[in-house]
Amino acid sequence: MKTILYSFLILILFASCSSDDPSDMDMSTQDTEDTNTPDPDDDDDPEPLQIYKILSLGDSYTIGQSVCNTCRFPEQLNDSLTHIISNSNIISTVIAQTGWTTTDLQIGIASETLTTDYELVTLLIGVNNQFQNAPFSIYETEFPQLVETAIMAANGDKSNLIVLSIPDYAFTPFGQNNGNPVETSQEIDVYNTFIETYCSQENISFLNITDITRMGLEDPSLVAADGLHPSQSAYTKFVERLLPLALEKIL
Q1: What's the mean pLDDT in 80-92?
Q2: pLDDT of amino acid 226
Q3: What is the pLDDT, as a whole number, of residue 193?
């Protein structure tokens, strides 16, 4: 009888030990628990919106006289940048009016509350100095002053500034019928040579777009309906050259 009881107790003890054997655990449950463990590398938060501020200073060529608001080059540039830079918001400010000389632009800027946090600033000014026969000495004085103002607005960083050359309106119906087209082009060359030389000396980016406007007679689609200012198509060509420089500066 004792032998039977002893054997029975051994059997119970063996069964109890077997139930604690790790090999009998339900591994599927363990795998599920591991899978649901949060991964510190996972980031479901959306990418923060990147905001870029651009300031455009100038005259009728910047405000886009005779074309729609979205057709002028600052707006076309902003649209291109928005499509290229993911999750971005381009905030555009334009200080420009048709007929403005360098003096007028200085007054216009002074009337605004100009901040100093722009990632990019463009400057295109001077055609009305030439058209109104203002002494060239005024431009020699005021253009550098406007450049300094533009740099201040561009976080004080000259590398954030792009100066555009003055378009040549001699190659438009208006330019052909008002004044001497040859003299107009020669005078605009004087202005642009001064601009380019100054920018080179000061290590400031200079972009030539004058040659585009000098195709206005052979390609009338580059001239707006008023027969004087660049068309939307011309501004698109401006932006094709401007875009790589702009990307280089704001990224």
Answers
A1: 95
A2: 98
A3: 98
b/e burial code for range 16-55 (CB count within 10 A of at least 16 → b): eeeeeeeeeeeeeeeeeeeeeeeeeeeeeeeeeeeebbbb
Are the beta carbons of 231 and 221 closer than 8 angstroms?
yes
C-alpha closest to that of 241 among 76, 88, 96, 127: 76
Domain range list for the chain: 50-246
Q: Is 180 in a helix, a strand, or coil?
A: coil
Residues 6+ apart with CB under 8 A from 83: none
Q: Please state whether 172 falls in left (phi above 0), alpha (psi between -120 and 50) or beta.
A: beta
Residue 16 pLDDT > 60, yes or no? no
Q: How many whole angstroms separate alpha carbon 48 and alpha carbon 240?
A: 28
Whether the Cβ atoms of residue 166 and residue 129 lie closer than 8 Å to each other: no
Per-residue model confidence (pLDDT) at position 106: 98
- Asked if 66 contacts 112 with a C-beta cutoff of 8 angstroms, the reply is no
Write phi, then psi, for 214 (nearest 5 degrees). -80, 5
CATH for the stretch 50-246: 3.40.50.1110
d(CA 105, CA 35): 64
CA–CA gap between residue 119 and residue 90 (Å, rounded): 10
- Kindly report the average pLDDT of the chain as a whole number: 88
Nearest to 235 by CA among 107, 56, 27, 88: 56
* 120-124 and 50-58 strand pairing: parallel
Q: Check pLDDT > 50 for residue 64.
A: yes
Q: What is the pLDDT of residues 29-47, one digit of tens each?
A: 344 344 455 555 555 666 7
> CA-CA distance, 202 to 208, in Å (whole number)?
17
